[in-house]
Design brief:
about 300 residues, alpha/beta, about 20% strand, Rossmann fold, single chain, 10 strands
Length: about 300
């Protein structure tokens, strides 16, 4: 699909901030790493926080710069968890891949998507809006403004990359993105959108919208753009993502992503990368499991980023 067309479908983009500023909270020491909160402005100017994980082997007081990975949280109906889950800081976290990547030696940023964690809408009584209702409300709010929820998420992440590019110990030439489920969807789209992203890992992140509609499978509101099926489908982004290093992993028993679509996506990716003589930069798999980002897959993701960052 044409890039200019997709950018229009993402909706109106707020003006970029002229100056990128951020602040870091006090570091908290854990076993093998430290973490802190980093505050910055998102695309609409609101101040947001993300978690920044730093391996013990990284000395942030020197001029040495280090590869960094954005670890985007899942959906899973865990609206209260948000950025805390990949960092292992919420109750009963299901996916702690940010910790895996940090312990593999990477600086890791865990942003929070609007509608999750601290970025949920508050009602007049000061209570957070119900998560699913909040997500639907946000989708409608942006739609009424000629915008999209997916566009909001991508534009917010663009601001996060602006910040990372100014953090002294981050190598702005070696930034990757990793995500599972909704996070895998965002990783895939943002890897297409943002040229500064050098490598992408998407676990159980997306499928063919055409097939999902045919089989009456609903998904997160972040997945949809108006009229996209008039021009193509989500897997068509692969044409432009190539030859950027890409690791796609799906589960054959995933109940929300049909296995035939996952196999087709893997074949399509391999074909595109082979035609561009970049087959060594594309790893795809459909494993005998479900909608999970297993420890084994997380380890493969860490090795993938070691290779390409």
């Amino acid at each position: 699909m044409d890039r200019a067309l997709l950018l229009r479908l993402l909706g109106e983009k707020p003006a970029r901030q002229e100056k990128t500023t951020y602040s870091l909270a006090t570091l908290t020491q854990e076993d093998g790493y430290r973490y802190t909160e980093i505050s910055y402005q998102a695309c609409d100017g609101e101040t947001v926080q993300a978690l920044l994980l730093i391996p013990d082997g990284v000395d942030i007081e020197t001029s040495e710069k280090h590869p960094t990975i954005i670890a985007h949280h899942q959906h899973g109906g865990r609206y209260d968890a948000g950025m805390l889950e990949p960092a292992g800081l919420c109750e009963n976290p299901a996916n702690t891949f940010a910790l895996t990547l940090c312990k593999a030696g990477f600086v890791v940023l865990c942003p929070e998507q609007i509608g999750f964690g601290r970025r949920r809408e508050k009602l007049s009584d000061g209570q957070y809006m119900n998560g699913r209702d909040n997500e639907r409300w946000l989708f409608i709010q942006y739609y009424l403004q000629g915008r999209t929820l997916l566009g909001k998420c991508l534009f917010d992440l663009e601001c996060a990359v602006d910040v990372l590019a100014n953090v002294p110990f981050v190598d702005k030439e070696r930034i990757g993105i990793c995500g599972h489920s909704m996070g895998g969807l965002i990783a895939y789209w943002f890897g297409w959108y943002e040229k500064r992203i050098k490598a992408i890992t998407s676990a159980c992140g997306f499928s063919s919208l055409t097939l999902l509609q045919e089989r009456h499978l609903n998904h997160t509101f972040t997945m949809y753009l108006p009229s996209i099926l008039n021009y193509g489908d989500t897997p068509d982004l692969l044409d432009e993502i190539c030859p950027k290093p890409l690791y796609l992993t799906f589960g054959a028993e995933d109940r929300i992503f049909p296995v035939d679509a996952s196999l087709d996506i893997c074949r399509k990716a391999q074909s595109i990368y082979t035609l561009q003589e970049a087959s060594n930069q594309c790893i795809t798999e459909v494993t005998e499991d479900g909608h999970v980002f297993t420890e084994e897959k997380q380890s493969r993701a860490a090795n993938f980023f070691r290779r390409f960052l």
